[in-house]
Amino acid sequence: MQDIIIKVEANTLGPLSPKKVRNLIKQGVFSSAHLVWSNSEGEWVPAWSVPELKEMFNLTHAKAAGLSKVLAVASGKGGVGKTVLASSLGVGLASAGRTTTVVDADFGGANLHTAMGVLQPEYNFDDFFSNSGKPLSDFLIETPVANLTMIGGTCGSILTTPKYHQKQRFIRTLRKLTAEYVVLDLGGGSQFNVIDFFLLADEPIVVVTPELPSVQEAFSFIKMALLRRLVRVFRHEPAVLALVKEGEVNRPGHIIKTMEDIYHCLTEIDIGLALRFRSTLNSFAPKLVLNKRSKRSDDEEAAAIQTAAFELLSIEVDYLGHISFDENVEKAIQQFRPFLLHSPASQAARDIEKLIDGHLLGLGSLRRTLRKRKWQQELNSITEYYPEVKLVDEVPIMDIVKSK
Predict the structure, then answer these.
(1) Upper half-sphere CA count for residue 239 (Cβ side, 13 Å)
(2) Could you tell me the end-to-end alpha-carbon distance of the chain, in angstroms, rounded to an integer?
(3) Are 102 and 179 in contact (CB under 8 A)?
(4) How many CA atoms lie within 13 A of 236 on its CB side?
(5) pTM (predicted TM-score)
(6) Tens digit of each residue's pLDDT (9 = 90 or more) over 41-76
(7) What digits encode the pLDDT tens for the residues 210-254?
(8) What is the rounded CA–CA span in Å between residue 182 and residue 12?
(9) Phi, psi of 4 (to 5 degrees)
(10) How far is C-alpha 274 from the chain's CA centre?
(11) CA distance linking residue 196 with residue 201, whole number of Å
């Protein structure tokens, strides 16, 4: 298929490659009702009448009807703003008109519900795993934001170590929700629970702050996630497992052999195995978000992670962008209010908007500019009617405290 020119509303775009056209269809920007320039007829024709485009529209419709897109937000350590970002992505996507579900997948330390202002979730993770006969949709909780539902977690959950097949089942079930997007708020650290959900997601996102410990832990998390994937993919290939162990890449602070070294070793053992190894590395594509950025030089910390991942792990880490440091984040947490609704006009909120529009929804600069005012109006409208939470009135434990 050759490059084509399309017309969306009053805007003419192109010539565009088939790949770019497919992306616009997936993003909902270009549909079969829009127009395509026909060189043979010398005029604009409906997109649905172009044979080469019919397959793209059919694939997109099947995707929309069958599976949600799962985003997983993780971090190498706690305190980097992971939950604030997860809740902001949920609110931002919902305010952009995308049906979204946010899920608290932090076993034993759940707090996404408080960031959403829902202090007593009716259902949680444990309820789903212990009631395998019920559909996941029965455990969805409505939020005050239109298009946004939630699955709550539990603090001190008894189900701290679900089996791998349970995690797979949960992700498969999430994909079948009617929501277009599902955002997982994972726990901090490199436990297998966190890494497995991270690897099962469509968009695995790591949050990091400019401080050195956070940068080190973020790289360590990415490394451990890659190793977890390699171990699962090559669990029946002792040659690969032996090389990974020999290189000591699974020990914190130690990388004697890089992934490139291991690949070259495998080429001498079995070229087919080596190619599978390379393919596994290429298919691992974590995303990175720099949070609490206060100066331009902070971007160097994100670049350092990208460089280390490329040179030592032979993988590319996609940098989605930064979110500026904002003192209002802490105020939003204290008021049990999503940050985007607490400070919708702040620089940090604009950074989140750019991340959502530019990277998750894939909107171009022109479309982002046209949508910006509408997005702000939508957030302000939600903020106006979002219920206030009074801790003393809403949290049962406070009744105990007051009675003492």
Answers:
(1) 15
(2) 74
(3) no
(4) 0
(5) 0.76
(6) 677 877 776 777 766 765 444 344 457 889 999 998
(7) 999 999 999 999 999 999 999 988 989 999 999 988 765 545 455
(8) 32
(9) -130, 165
(10) 30
(11) 9
